[in-house]
Amino acid sequence: MAGSSLAINRIKKELLELQKSTDNADNPIEIYAESDSIMKLRGVIVGPPDTPYAGAKFMLEIIIPETYPFLPPKVKFLTKIWHPNISSATGVICLDILKDQWAAAMSLRTMLLSIQALLASPEPDDPQDAVVAKQFKSNRNAFNITAKHWASIYANGPSRQPDCEAKVEKLMQMGFSESDSRAALSSKDWDIPMAAEFLIK
Question: Sorted alphabetically, which Pfam families does this protein's record hold (predicted)?
Fold first, then answer.
């Protein structure tokens, strides 16, 4: 992808400003080129404090359109995450600034800060993942356990959930794969019989 000179110059300027930024020390946000194309970037954010994601590091894919900054980048999580506004299967994000509320004055840094803020303030009434949103609204304790577990397993989060791992192991002993077992238990509030029944269907 060649990219327009306007988009390329803007991205170079933003990356330089991010490197120079002193306020980035308190809340480290990383953006770097994935390959030799500056139009394909990787972003890294840290889970906000006082959330199930605290201390975990999440990687995002950032694809810059040739019309940047007039149209928003295409962004998705590469690190699996359990959140109402982010698909647990694909990493696609439901956030207004990535759609119709984008403005050319915004930057990649402000975009990542907005995604980080979304981790602290989910919007379950406008979900990307209906299963996660339902759990968030109906069983907040199960949601917090699941979100911490996923952050620990997939994003090196500090909050281990040994009970969850034991239940995953139990389903694996029944012949189900680790990923299928974890997904089923997550969606069924860590109820082994319900998760097993879901997997058998």
Answer: UBA, UQ_con
Strand order in the sheet with 30-33: 30-33, 40-46, 57-63, 74-77
In this structure, are residues 130 and 61 in contact, taking their beta carbons and an 8 Å threshold? no
Q: What percent of the chain has pLDDT over 70?
A: 96
Is there a contact between 41 and 144 (Cβ–Cβ < 8 Å)? no
User: pTM for this structure?
Assistant: 0.93
Residue-level length of the chain = 201
- Using the predicted structure, report yes or no on whether residue 154 has a pLDDT greater than 80: yes
The residue annotated as part of the active site, out of 7, 41, 86, 94, is 94
- Render pLDDT for 89-121 as a digit per residue (tens, 0 to 9): 999 999 999 999 999 999 999 999 999 999 999
How many Å apart are CA 94 and CA 84, to the nearest integer?
9
Which domains, from first to last, does the chain contain? 2-120 (3.10.110.10), 161-200 (1.10.8)
CA 135 to chain centre: 17
164: annotated active-site residue: no
Number of neighbours of residue 162 by Cβ within 10 angstroms: 8
